[in-house]
Design a protein that fits this description.
Length: 379
């Protein structure tokens, strides 16, 4: 479910692709001196001695919050850049073959988890490196001049359309880099794991922000990292993803008030079928006015969530309180065939004590960090 949610979030950020295939360096290659181009720099720092919420660092490092208004304002890749084969990128020729494979795996993992061909599988090689939009989308190792900086992602945006023109990812060659041969064991390398950091930086290439609050510390887009860390490899973002999806969709919808009418506090209660038996909209119920509303539509998307709040077999759940299977029932009434209703997916780790913490999800990243799941007889 979490992977579907992340896929939906990314899809809302990058739009659908068209049938045009282009290379990383398109005919709209930006020139930094042009007034229509905006440069955004996102800096990935080493974790402070104490986490920020424990007094280690009260504020984000100066300069690393550029462009957040642009994130919220709908910055995205154009249909032209996406094409049908995805966004092209190239890796500097001086990067070793094993590091190259780890970087490509990080890009591929974002494709896998979103179910979209976001990045082109035909990865190029280039002599280019550093901060230069004219070279296209380039990944390289460079001297960043500060040993507290792990990596930098820079991208350039066309101000008029808010479309991304190019991005560069630079890893700091002042630091020690390596590959953890088994991210799920308890023997950590004393170096920065290439794929771990690459997974985070690729998220920036998808217009995802750095996160700094304590509740995000186990997530891929958390803004700090340490030597030996591998938790960013796992892209699942926890149940907070649902809230982020709703925030993104809400903010984007508000950008088009003339084209999109938002009806709040009005859940769907029944699907409408036309004379051919096809779905033609839905009946909504306004919780404030207690009135029914008929909404006709050429296409209807069911996005009601699951049925965790039915508490099958009395299990606790992290699902939102609206996850009571309503969408399944509406689909059934409309003649949609259903299957596997007897199956429920359970997350293997969650809090059961104290009582007020029941149902709190414990991320699978605790297992990637070395935790072992034991049954009651193993102590």
């Amino acid at each position: 479910m979490k992977k579907f949610l992340i896929a939906f979030l990314i899809a809302s950020l990058i739009l659908s692709s068209s049938a045009v295939i282009v290379s990383a360096k398109t005919d709209k290659t930006p020139v930094i001196s042009e007034k229509g181009i905006e440069k955004v720099v996102l800096v990935h720092y080493k974790a402070p001695g104490k986490p920020p919420w424990a007094g280690g660092l009260k504020d984000k490092p100066e300069g690393d919050d550029q462009g957040y208004k642009l994130f919220r304002g709908g910055v995205k890749w154009s249909d032209e850049a996406l094409g049908t084969a995805g966004i092209s990128y190239a890796i500097n020729e001086n990067i070793s073959s094993d590091f190259r494979e780890e970087i490509i795996t990080a890009f591929d993992e974002w494709d896998l988890i979103t179910g979209k061909e976001i990045f082109n599988d035909n990865v190029g090689t280039t002599s280019a490196s550093g901060d230069n939009p004219d070279d296209g989308n380039v990944i390289s190792w460079t001297n960043l001049g500060d040993s507290n900086i792990i990596a930098i992602t820079t991208f350039w945006i066309w101000r008029g359309t808010k479309e991304l023109a190019a991005f560069d990812i630079e890893f700091n060659n002042q630091l020690d880099w390596g590959i953890d041969p088994d991210p799920e064991d308890q023997n950590f390398i004393n170096e920065f794991d290439v794929r771990n950091i690459a997974s985070h930086e690729v998220g920036h290439a998808l217009v995802l922000e750095d996160l700094y609050q304590s509740q995000y510390s186990e997530m891929t887009m958390y803004g700090y990292s340490t030597e030996g860390e591998v938790k960013k490899i796992s892209l699942e973002a926890g149940d907070i993803t649902g809230a982020e999806i709703m925030r993104t969709i809400r903010d984007e919808a508000k950008n088009y008030p003339d084209d999109i009418k938002v009806l709040e506090f009005s859940p769907a209660v029944e699907l409408i079928l036309n004379d051919k038996g096809a779905c033609a909209g839905a009946i909504l119920y306004n919780l404030e006015t207690e009135e029914y509303i008929t909404v006709k539509a050429k296409a209807t998307v069911m996005a009601t969530g699951g049925s965790g709040r039915l508490h099958v077999q009395d299990f606790m759940t992290t699902n939102h309180y609206g996850a009571t299977g309503d969408g399944l029932i509406m689909g059934y009434r409309a003649g949609v065939p259903l299957k596997f209703l007897h199956t429920v997916q359970y997350h293997p780790t969650g809090a059961v004590f104290p009582e007020q913490a029941e149902g709190l999800l414990i991320t699978e990243k605790v297992r990637a960090a070395g935790a072992n799941v034991l049954n009651i007889d193993q102590g």
